[in-house]
Amino acid sequence: MAKTRTTLHPHMRTTATHSTVATPRPRPGAAALSGRLLSAELAIVTGNSNPELARAICRNLHVPLTDSFVGRFSEGEIRAKINENVRGKDVFVVQPTCPPVNDNLMELLIMTDALRRASARRITAVIPYFGYARQDRKDQPRVPITAKLVANLITTAGADRVLTMDLHAGQIQGFFDIPVDHLYAVTVFEQHLRQRRLKPIVIVSPDVGGIKMARAYAKRLGAGLAIVDKRRDSPDAVEVMHVLGEVKGKICILVDDLIATGSSLVEAADKLQRDGATAVYAYVTHPVLSGPARERVARSTMKELMVTDTIPLDPKRPHGKIAVVSVAKLLSEAIKRIHYELSISVLFDGMPG
Known about the structure:
With 353 residues, this protein is of the alpha/beta class. The protein is 32% helix and 24% strand. It has helices at 2-22, 51-61, 101-117, 146-157, 186-196, 211-221, 263-274, 293-299, 328-339, and strands at residues 42-46, 68-72, 78-82, 90-94, 122-127, 161-165, 180-183, 201-205, 224-234, 237-244, 251-259, 279-287, 304-308, 322-325. It has a 7-stranded mixed beta sheet. Helix 2 (51-61) crosses helix 9. It is globular. It starts with a helix and ends in a 14-residue tail after the last helix.
């Protein structure tokens, strides 16, 4: 029996020692977010759609932008190469699919494929502006649902996760078969509005479809709510009919997810001014600004159009009344939390719903 005790006792000690080493470490809490060296585990990659935003995210995270090349062959085909080792890293590809939409989408797909073949541990497509989002349903016979097609392409290319902001339609999240983190610019715009101390204000949705977003702004700011009722005579022309809500003698804040040609927003601003608003400002997340949008905004009754940097503005064209607030801090915080497997629900505070 003594021999038996001598044989078992060391094994028991050995087993206990190995068990202690193998016990998984707890996930880091909020205090650990700034304490660990991110650059050894995380990589930020960007294409040509919005490198300035990617660099701003890197500055917030205190990590270098991963060296990569995205160019064109002589016949116009896209070529890409990741110039650093990303094997086993958590990679975030910052690439909004803004105009030129097809070029930027293809860059995203090709970079994702290159990273997958380079053995990245996980690839997150950071798409602050999701192109083709307005083609999210069949509104006519024999038309595609292109937003779903794009979601399939991103997944097939090798993305493991998507981080985006202010989708034109929230149900697009369901088009993906991978996790989607959907952020809202309301938190960034709210801070800017509070700093301006505009009173009395009323939050205005330029159409019925944007009422959820407008309600989220009104709730956070403790402001009134109004809606501009309109009817479309053609896809590019908007006739404003009337305003639902009290705007006379108040500062109106128009909120929307994107501005394309600007006709809806400008017509809404003109109507609000005619109905007695003392001033009209607009806060819009994605500045697509296609066609004559800049000229329309410059001639409009709006005092200012505030947008984010999800889409870069052309530095060669005057912006006039257009001002920019950055969402880099919000995106970098989301990236940090995704990397450390922490909840990002705190960043959804004030989400439309």
